[in-house]
Amino acid sequence: MDIAKEIAVRAADIEQRIQMYLPKAEGYQHTIFEAMDYSVTAGGKRLRPMLMEASYEMFGGTDPKIVEPFMAAIECIHTYSLVHDDLPEMDDDAYRRGKLTTHKKFGQAMGVLAGDALLNYAFEIVAKALVAQSGDAKAAKAFEVLACKAGIYGMIGGQVVDVEMTGKELSKEQLEYVYENKTGALIEASMMIGAILAGADEAKVAAVHKIASDVGMAFQIQDDILDVCGDSALLGKPTLSDEENGKVTYVTIHGIDESRRYVTELSERAVRELEEIGGDNEFLKELVIWLINRDK
C-alpha cells in the first residue's frame, strides 16, 4: 500500500463530503458562515474523520451515510478548538497551515464567534442524524462519546490545565493529562465512534479506546519534536512556538532522543493491539505508522 497516496485520496474525499455539511454564506449573518468555511477548509490532514471511518470499516461498517455526520461534526469540533487556540488570549498565532488564522482574517470578535459557531453546528449536524436514525442506540451512544470527549472531561479539561500551567513547571502526570485530553480525547472519540456505529461490543470499544489513547499521546509528542526539529515551511507555522510561549512539553522534560523512543514504543504497541483486534485494519495500521513518522 502506498500510504501517502491512499491518505491523500481519502483526505480529498472527506474534504468534499464535509463541505456538503457546511452552511451556505447567506443572510445577515453571512460573515460567520464565511469564517466557518474559511476555518474548516484551510487545509489539514482530516485525521479525525479518517480515523473514524477506518475504525468503522474495521468493524464491518458498510454504510457511509451512518458515519458521515459524525465525521463532519468531529472535524468542526477540532477546527473550533484550533480557532480558539490561535486567539491572542490563548496561543496568539497569526498563521496556521500557511494561512492567516481566523481571527487575523476576520477580526478577533469574529474569531471567537466562528469557534462558537463551529462547536454548536457540530452538535446540530449530529442531532439531525439522531432524528434521522430515531431509535438507534448506537448513534445515541456515539453522540454521548462525542460530547464527553469534546468537553470538560476531555479536550476542554486538557486545555484548562494547559492554559493554567503555561510558564510553570508541570509534573509528568500533569503533562500526560494535558496530552491525553487536549489532543488525545478527539482521537479517542474518532476511533470509538467508528467502532460503536459499526456495532462493536463494549470490550472491542474499550480496546479501541486504549489504542487511540496511545495514538493520541504519540501524535502530540511527535508534534513537540516537530516544533523543535521541524521545517516551518512544511508545518505551515513557525517552529519553536512552544518555547516562545513558555510551554513545557515532553521534549523539554525528556529530551529529543527519549521523546522519539517513546513515540516508537507507543506506535508499535498501538499497531500490535490493532492486529490483535483483527478485521480489515490494514489501512488503519499503516495510517498510525505514518502519523507517528510524519514531518508536518
Structure, explained:
This protein is mainly α. Helices cover 74% and strands 1% of the residues. The protein is built from 14 helices and two strands. The protein has helices spanning 3-19, 30-40, 47-58, 64-85, 102-106, 108-132, 137-150, 155-165, 172-197, 202-229, 232-235, 241-244, 250-277, 282-292, and strands at 95-96, 99-100. A two-stranded antiparallel sheet has the order 1-2. β1 (95-96) and β2 form a beta hairpin. α2 (30-40) packs across α6 and α4 packs antiparallel against α6 (108-132). The longest helix has 28 residues, at 202-229. It is globular, with a radius of gyration of 18 Å. The two termini are 21 Å apart. The relative contact order is 0.12. The model has no long low-confidence stretch (mean pLDDT 91).
